[in-house]
Each structure stands twice: as structure tokens, then as C-alpha cells.
Amino acid sequence: MPLSTFSSNQRIRQNFPRPVWLRTWLLVMALVLVCLGGWESFWRMHGYIPTVEDDLGLWAAIRRQANQQEGESVALIGSSRIQLGLNPDVFARTTGVRPLMLAIDGNSPLPVLQNLAEDPKFSGLVICGLTPQWLAESKTSKRRAAKWIRKYRRQKWSSRLETQLSAGIQQLFVFRFPGLSPARVWRRLINNERLKKVYAPMRMDRYRSADYSRTDLSRLKEAREKRSRQLASTTISLAPEAFKERVEQVHRWVESIEHRGGQVVFIRMPSTGTIREIEEAAWPRHRYWDVFAARIHGLTIHFEDYAVLSSFPCPDGSHLDADGAILFSEALVKLFQDKKLLLGYALDSSDYYM
Questions:
Q1: What string of DSSP letters covers 252-284?
Q2: pLDDT tens for each residue of 295-354
Q3: Is a pLDDT exceeding 80 seen at residue 144?
Q4: H or E element: which one contains 22?
Q5: 8 Å CB contact between 329 and 86
């Protein structure tokens, strides 16, 4: 006579046969895939493309790489102008070294420069996109750059892994962009707000290639000019003596990097039209950039001083587009070559054209 437990298990298997459960799970998975595929296809058909969300985790992952390429690291620091304006692919093709994008949108590069200068493991080349605003601004410690620097060393391995997995999925699928989450889309529809396409999507290496045909350029320019006027009117600039001390501090950071065999070059990235006029009125070149360039030990390059750099239009007044970034990057690397800046790198002059 069979045991009672055996009979009970047998009845359960008879009432709920395994193939039924398997078919149910497969059906659920298929429905999920169909829904996700439909959501993905819908946005792609409307011109949306994948983009990676910038955050501390992604920046920190690239910052750690700067210490792993001993003697050949090239760190790009600054704000969105260098993030959109210096193409890493062009730099890698023409020098043999892929640069690391450490620029932070809307933030001064000085906290990042200080971090690299104080890190004994870093001894590479720093290309710093610097505007007069960041030179003259009195407070930088409360901005995002300073906060990211304080936090990145304390990252746990689980957080690092999560960043890599999340960013990897984001670069493949449009629906992973937070701005297209069903909750946000629904909120915008209720509030009668337009859904905006990403005109400068971010890659895993944190470079952003700008295509202004994907946005309302006139509205974007208007917003940029309004923002520039606000910054010019609200930014508290350093007094002359304090500015002099700022320059001396930057000078000491440059020397620290140079003593370890590294180099630093400061670049005033292009701006045009009304944006350029606002910047010059608020932070005159002769009072800020020229004073800085005369004292600093590293190489300084102002786009207006070189014909090969001064002819690039900025569609929004502040940033280059994707095609402009390619040509600007090629011209800039050629200028580096002419100034003997990249002697330690595998330059191939046949890759250049002017």
C-alpha cells in the first residue's frame, strides 16, 4: 500500500501538471517581451535613440581608469563644452591613446584638476576646458563636481557593478532612458508638456555627440542666452587679490602634475554670437583669461588666437555640433603636435588634414 505522502504528491502533480506551469511562464515572458518590444519600437519610430544617464557611478568608473594607464592617461576635464566639443574617437585615432572624459556638465573643472594634482597615481596629460566664469567664480565646493570627487572613492563594489550593468542596458535600449519611463511620460501628457528628444545622447565613455536637428534650435538658443544672462548677473566673481590667489593655486596644481611627468593644457572652447558677447561683458578676457595665461605654467590655448580653431560656429551659441567637434578635434590635435605637446604619444601626422 503506497504511503499517504506519496499519494498526496501524486495528486498534486496530476492536478497541476508541469507542462501547464511551463506554458504559463513562457506565456508571461512572451507578453513581457512583446510589451517591452512594442514600447521600444514606438519610441524608435518617433526618432528617439538610446542614451546613457550621467551620474556619479559612471564618472567614478572613468576616473579610476585614469590611474590604471600609467604615463599615458589623457584626462579631459571641464564642462559640457569639452564634453560635446572634443571627440575621443578622433583623438584616439590620431594619437593612439583614448582620452578619458571626466568633464561634468555645468561644473567648474578646478575641483577635478585639484583631485588629479593631489593623486600621486596620476601622471598623464590633462586637457582642461576652462571658461572665464570658472576662473572667476568664488565658490565651487558646493557644486556637483566637488561632491562626486568626495564620494567616488567610497563606492562599494556592488554599486560599481550596478553602474556597469545599468549603463550597458541604457546604451542598447531607448526605453531605459529615465525621461521615457511610463510615469514621466504620463505626467508630461497630463500637464500638456512636450516630450523632448535627446539631441546630445551620452555614450558609455561619457562623450556626447550633438545633433541640433533633433531639437527646436531657436528655443534652445533662447534658453541658453537667458541662462547665460542669469549666470552673468548672479555669479559672484573673485576680487583682484583673491583671483590672483586662485591663479597661483592652479599654478601649484599644474606643477604637481608636471613633477610626476604629466602635462596640463588649458583650452578656452569656442562660443559665438550673443553668448560670446555676454561672457566678454561679464568676464573680460584682458581681466581674467589673459592674466591667467600670463602666469600659468601649462600651455594655454584660446580659440580666438588660432585661425584653425576660431572658425567653428556653435549652433546654440555655446556648443559645437557633432561635425564641428570632429573638425575641431582634428585641428586641436594638430595644434598640439605643432607645439610639441604630445611627444610621448604615438602621433601619425598622415591622419591630419586642415
A1: HHHHHHHHTT-EEEEEE----HHHHHHHHHHS-
A2: 987 789 999 999 999 999 999 999 999 999 999 999 999 999 888 776 554 433 333 222
A3: yes
A4: helix 18-45
A5: yes
Q: What is the pTM of this model?
A: 0.82
Q: Which three cell numbers stand for residue 138?
A: 568664488
CA distances from 336 to 91, 261, 270, 301, 313 (A): 11, 17, 17, 10, 21
Beta strands in 9-99 (DSSP E): 74-77
What the block records as the C-alpha cell of 283 is 568676464
What Å distances lie between residue 101 and 120, 198, 276, CA to CA?
20, 19, 25
Rounded CA separation 84/105 (Å): 10
Q: Let me know: does 77 contact 126? Beta carbons within 8 Å.
A: yes
Query: CB–CB of 64/154 below 8 Å?
Result: no
Joined together, the cell numbers standing for residue 130 give 576652462
